[in-house]
DNA sequence: GATAAAGGTTCTAGCTACTGGAAGGTCAAG
DNA sequence: CTTGACCTTCCAGTAGCTAGAACCTTTATC
């Protein structure tokens, strides 16, 4: 299987597949006589696993850990679950951060008339003097 | 005012302040005879504005636009508001994305026993064969 | 056989927003 | 005169790719 077929079957670009290999996430495939990478089914499965893990927020390093656990017959599901719980906590804090931004920004936009006048509560809130300086 | 004082007053690191200048966000300060940057109050205000805009999610490029609007007496508040509304939409879509991850990940963790057994629904969902392969 | 298109390979560089470090000049105190 | 803190510059690295250059291989067509 050449790289473009793997790409089509996984929806991951050839560049990206090579990148994953170079990053050490993917076990390097055998090479054909012409130097082309010769992939097998296992590679497709690994790439799909990376893709799904990425979709739910895991970093490449974390994907690497997950793949290692996946390959290890002596793993415990507790290890995997811990990774997932850690990630869940990260996602929650990221959501909280974005919600805070949203709240602030939403309040500001509602105060802004959005007309032709230069007077703008958004800029004022960001630190601009409301109209004139007192210094 | 030397860079470290500006840093203390804004809570932005000297490295970061130089970086903002190099990126073109900050108007370059005059230089003292020894080559040191000599900041004035305006710079502190600009840096604080960048800091607050960054906190509510604006990118550096967007901060640059906001600063430009802030300096322009002929601006309209509508322009500023549009920037804010765009950013709000971006934040909303990012939150939605994270919520989707959260939902999936949360469901998976709840299915995982988290014990010593290697059998793990999380890995299964990520693409691993449930127990054995059919190939 | 010539040639062109469509694959493959490697390498380098760019993106965001910084941070850290090296190598060196300057300033204030002892 | 030395020490330490400050300042300067530039280079490199972080995450996760993507784009491009420069080159080789395969396949099809003329």
Automatic annotation (TrEMBL), chains A, B:
Q: What is its main location?
A: cytoplasm
**Ranges for the HTH merR-type domain?**
1-69
- Coiled-coil portions: 81-111
**UniProt keyword terms in alphabetical order:** Activator, Coiled coil, Copper, Cytoplasm, DNA-binding, Metal-binding, Transcription, Transcription regulation
Q: Check the record and name the PROSITE patterns matching this protein.
A: HTH_MERR_1, HTH_MERR_2
Under the heading SMART domains, the entry gives: HTH_MERR
* Cell compartment(s), UniProt: Cytoplasm
Instruction: Name the PANTHER family on file.
Output: HTH-TYPE TRANSCRIPTIONAL REGULATOR CUER, REDOX-CYCLING DRUG-SENSING TRANSCRIPTIONAL ACTIVATOR SOXR
User: How does the annotation summarize its subunit structure?
Assistant: Homodimer.
What is the name of the protein in this document? Answer: HTH-type transcriptional regulator CueR
């Amino acid at each position: 299987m050449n790289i473009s077929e793997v790409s089509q079957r996984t929806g991951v670009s050839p560049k990206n597949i090579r990148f994953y290999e170079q990053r050490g996430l993917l076990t390097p495939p055998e090479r054909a006589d012409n130097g082309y990478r010769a992939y097998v089914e296992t590679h497709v499965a690994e790439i799909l696993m990376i893709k799904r893990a990425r979709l739910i927020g895991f970093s490449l390093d974390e994907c690497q850990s997950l793949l290692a656990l996946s390959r290890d017959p002596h793993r415990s599901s507790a290890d995997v679950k811990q990774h997932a719980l850690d990630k869940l906590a990260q996602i929650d804090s990221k959501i909280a951060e974005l919600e805070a931004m949203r709240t602030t920004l939403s309040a500001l936009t509602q105060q802004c008339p959005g007309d032709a006048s230069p007077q703008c509560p958004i800029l004022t809130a960001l630190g601009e003097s409301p109209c004139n300086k007192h210094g």
